[in-house]
Amino acid sequence: MHITRRTILAAGAVTAVATVFPRPHVAHAALPLTQPALPFAQADLAPVISEKTVSLHYGKHHKAYYDKLNTLAAGTRYADMELVEIVKEAAKSEAAEDIKIFNNAAQAWNHVAYWDQFVPGGPNRPEGDLGARINETFGDYDGLIKRAVDVSDTVFGTGWVWLTRDDDNKLALIGYEDGNNPVAVGRPAYLGIDIWEHAYYVDYENRKAEHIRSVLEKLVNWRVVEERMSA
């Protein structure tokens, strides 16, 4: 299963409440929105994600989404909204300018969530009740990794794989094209794997599956994921 812009527009009547992470730097005040600092040093994710990739990914790509969003949203109805509100509201519109705003707001939000899940110091495997739920859904941790790789192959071109909940409110890995994300369709966002080429090509070239496996095996702080599930 994967989510496209058309899916998001069709889900305009969704009433579920999307999880907004408890960490204060995910939601921001009104414009101009400020890109939050990384919660680690740029070299801390190496060798899984190199310092060069983090520098380009955070310092160029992520920054560009914030810069473009601030320009596009200035003087619009979005100017007084927090970032996650912009994502939810812009997702409802088919207007060309709103689509541009959504794309940049969603990618700004996605990347904050992405960096935040790599905060060093927590367990790199789900534990306790969360571990049991992962095992129940995917068989075991290797099953989760295999499912993430398989789902990534359903996304044509750029996008994300998110650990979220499906239409039956069951834990699921779902592919989202481009900058689309679970919060835009009223779903929680527990864990996001960036499968845009800028996230991995410097380090892995075309070996996307290897990138996904390495990130899930070595970088995710599952305490962060557990906090998101408890929010």
Automatic annotation (TrEMBL):
E.C. no: 1.15.1.1
SUPFAM superfamilies xrefs: Fe,Mn superoxide dismutase (SOD), C-terminal domain (SSF54719), Fe,Mn superoxide dismutase (SOD), N-terminal domain (SSF46609)
PROSITE patterns from the UniProt entry: SOD_MN, TAT
Occurrences of domain Manganese/iron superoxide dismutase C-terminal (ranges): 126-228
Top enzyme category: oxidoreductase
Residue span, Manganese/iron superoxide dismutase N-terminal domain: 36-118
UniProt keyword annotations, A-Z: Metal-binding, Oxidoreductase, Signal
Signal peptide feature range: 1-29
Catalysed reactions, as listed in the record: 2 superoxide + 2 H(+) = H2O2 + O2
InterPro entries reported for this sequence: Mn/Fe_SOD, Mn/Fe_SOD_BS, Mn/Fe_SOD_C, Mn/Fe_SOD_N, Mn/Fe_SOD_N_sf, SOD_C_sf, TAT_signal
Protein task: Destroys radicals which are normally produced within the cells and which are toxic to biological systems.
Similarity field: Belongs to the iron/manganese superoxide dismutase family.
Protein name listed in UniProt: Superoxide dismutase
Source organism of this protein record: Rhizobium nepotum 39/7
Lineage: Bacteria, Pseudomonadati, Pseudomonadota, Alphaproteobacteria, Hyphomicrobiales
